[in-house]
Amino acid sequence: xxxxxxxxxxxxxxxxxxxxxxxxxxxxxxxxxxxxxxxxxxxxxxxxxxxxxxxxxxxxxxxxxxxxxxxxxxxxxxxxxxxxxxxxxxxxx
Length: 93
What we know:
Blueprint: H1 2-10, E1 16-22, H2 28-38, H3 42-56, H4 63-71, E2 77-83, E3 86-92
Antiparallel strand pairs: 1-3, 2-3
């Protein structure tokens, strides 16, 4: 929440802040589709898939988790869009 409040403080009136983060609720199929888009092959493909599933996803927020953080911050206007394995969090001042 401190980070969100600092973003709010430095953002100009009418400004938009964007956070792009992995979605904790991304499915195995979402991860597989994301990997396919990159065209990765071999070891790189398996390493990145392993990293998404076992490290990045574990530390990621859900949409509801972001909403809770935002409610505790100075931001009152926001939009969260899910796309593939990502959450796009738009914060408006």
